[in-house]
Design goal:
By secondary structure, the protein is of the alpha+beta class. Helix content is 16%, strand content 22%.
Length: 254
């Protein structure tokens, strides 16, 4: 066998090619099955009826995931949809039609204000400790010398009016960055995402919302602790402001 053939005209390279093609086809089916764990079963956009899960090659097998730090287990897929009342109405009766909020657009979870239903316990670091905590409760973390310390600076909204004064910083213990600003509005406490803030030495500008709307931000239920779901609600509230914060933002540009 000096020409490399195993039998007839079939050689090692040809067998390796066929094995690769079969492996790749199997991999595609495996990945298509595995990606059907979240958001499935899908539902009809107009009627809300649950669609069939599909055949065995497109249906994910049930798996149980053990969460770290004693947070229990999660099983997916379950074959059912988690009921959730969306505070919105369809503007037109066709697939893909936009929705309009029916209540407070900053809280209804529509469009840029959408939020995921994450677990209602704090995000944890590699050691099982809360990852996002107030700076006053964090050890060995401080604002860099020479940098602008946001604490004590006034915060201005999209209308240029003063929304309050920063009284505390919420920091990420895993990445050592500021995640949220805690603001005293004069009538209570508000929490704003740091990525939406422009910090200068004379003040902080957050153009997501007018100053008066800062007081309506969903706040953590436990002082000094913020859950994953509460993070989603805070980010969703300010995100919604970029569309629903003012009347002119809801109108077309052209």
């Amino acid at each position: 066998m000096t020409d490399g053939n195993i039998v007839g005209t079939i050689d090692v390279a040809e067998i390796a090619f066929y094995v690769f093609v079969l492996f790749f086809i199997a991999l595609v089916f495996y990945l298509r099955r595995e990606d059907r764990r979240e958001g499935y079963p899908v539902e009809d956009e107009l009627t809300g009826a649950i669609d069939t899960p599909g055949g065995p090659l497109s249906r994910a097998s049930t798996k149980t995931f053990h969460l770290p730090f004693g947070k229990g287990t999660v099983t997916a897929p379950t074959g059912t949809r988690d009921p959730f009342d969306l505070a919105a109405r369809r503007r037109e009766n066709f697939g893909g039609a936009p929705y309009s909020p029916t209540g407070n657009p900053l809280l209804d979870g529509i469009g840029p204000g959408a939020f995921a239903r994450r677990a209602d316990y704090p995000d944890l670091d590699a050691h099982g400790n809360p990852r996002i905590v107030p700076l006053s409760a964090a050890e060995n973390i401080y604002v860099a010398k020479g940098g602008v310390d946001p604490v004590g600076l006034p915060v201005y909204g999209a209308d240029g009016k003063k929304a309050g004064v920063v009284t505390e910083l919420w920091v990420d213990m895993a990445e050592h960055i500021i995640r949220y600003l805690e603001i005293d509005t004069g009538a209570g406490t508000s929490i704003a995402p740091m990525p939406m803030a422009v910090v200068r030495r004379d003040g902080i500008r957050i153009d997501a919302l007018p100053a008066a709307d800062f007081a309506g931000v969903p706040l953590p239920a436990t002082p000094g602790q913020m859950t994953r779901f509460e993070e989603e609600r805070i980010a969703g509230y300010f995100g919604a402001g970029y569309l629903y914060g003012t009347a002119d933002r809801q109108e077309p540009w052209l």
